[in-house]
Amino acid sequence: MLSPPTIDDIRAAATRIDGAVIRTPMLVSRTLSEIIGAEVWLKFENLQFTAAYKERGALNKLLQLTPEERARGVIAASAGNHAQAVAYHAKRLGIPAIIVMPSATPTVKVTQTEGHGAKVVLYGAMFDDAYSRARELAMENGYVFVHPFDDPQVIAGAGTLGLEMLAEAPDLDTIVVPIGGGGLMSGISIAARAIKPEIELIGVEAELYPSMKCAIQGLHLPLGGDTLAEGIAVKHPGELTSRILKDLASDVMLVPERDLERAVAMLVGIEKTVVEGAGAAGLAAMLADPARFAGKKVATILCGGNIDTHLLANVLVRDLVRQGRVARLRVAVHDQPGALAAITAKVYEAGVNVIDIKHSRIFTRLPAKDTMIEVECEARDPASIDDVVARLEAAGFVVERALLD
């Protein structure tokens, strides 16, 4: 059975990786603090070279390999940030690296990993398949397996974040940490409890993947689905990390997809920083239950910034819909000349911009002589959209507004 790293192990890791990873900024967000009603600190780990905290643990592990182990090479299983971290630092250190990824991994991630000098092996439909194959290859070829979270040296590397955060803000009351396999929170918890025993440590999981909450609280909750926070969508948390967090974590919160989307969008809009779903989970927890953090000095880690640009665009537009600044209005009209002009005139009068217009004459329950016109529009504020609806209804149109949830 593996033993947890100690605070001395974490301090040694901080010395070991110093200069090879970025000591990322940790700043108070004045705007988020006002929204949450707390003093909100953000640790910008999305500014690492590979855009994620994973470099800390991977590098700490690689630097402790013997010359013989380095010569044999390392192997890891990952479709995300751990792959980039192992590949990048292995190349820097002259260590051969193999990364096993699920067959469906997006080409851009495969290319990025290969760009760091690693050999990529595509195998299986899911991460669990890739993980099993990586273990097999390690046994067959003598590679050193670099686990993404359930390894004392990887955990110690992640724990260096706890040292940095409390050095910057020693008066913190609470640290909120995204949880996937649990390596990040395990390391931070060990460091934080050693420095400030009374500090509150709250883990955050996507509502669809409550695996660590179940493991340490003895619960049986549904698990699975498509989450924006794929970086923490872990079905089986670590054995070592589960033991650590059962002892040290104050609680584990679950956040719904809506709050994850809102957090990603707010970080772009307010902090002008790009964060993936997993990296925004800590802020999502604060947004989901601000009363829990009211009046406290609370910090969270923006642990990764690797989000697909198309997905990010979708999240940002969906947030505008929820804010009431983008809307899709379904307007039932008689299918005759001038109907569309009458609708767009009312939109113009309200000072609202038309993004797209679609007619639906066939797939509708309206009479054959009628049509449904969908008008997608954008406004400076929700009141302007409300004004468009009011003007259309006053003109005799029947208007239905499409909603996200």
Automatic annotation (TrEMBL):
Per its record, how is this protein called by name?
Threonine ammonia-lyase
ACT domain: residues covered:
328-405
Family matches, as InterPro entries: ACT_dom, ACT_ThrD-II-like, Ser/Thr_Dehydratase, Thr_deHydtase_catblc, TrpB-like_PALP, TrpB-like_PALP_sf
Q: Which UniProt keywords apply?
A: Lyase, Pyridoxal phosphate
Q: Which cofactor does it need?
A: pyridoxal 5'-phosphate
Pfam hit, one: PALP
Its domain of life? Bacteria
Catalytic reactions on record: L-serine = pyruvate + NH4(+)
Q: Which family does it belong to?
A: Belongs to the serine/threonine dehydratase family.
